[in-house]
Amino acid sequence: MGASERVAALRRARERQARIESATARTVKAFTNLERAVEAKAQAIERYDERVAQAEAMSESETAELARVCGSAEAAAEILGLSARAVRRVVKTDRERRGSA
Description:
about 0% strand; mainly alpha; 3 helices
């Protein structure tokens, strides 16, 4: 192996090392971005779940209030287009929640 061949082999090795370092940096950055995205998604889902839970609680509370104002679960059910059983279940759940709060 002549001097020029060794120089060329060394140049190729340096180029390969530079490509490896560049690919490694891009891969690490991609993994970091993925971790951030997964965390952001988890936080967004948590916020969404909290909003849904709050909306469900408000809906149940308002349904129970309508049943109280109407004087019966059957009347509230007819207004809402729900079954009386469903309204009674909501009233019971609301009563339990208020009792434990």
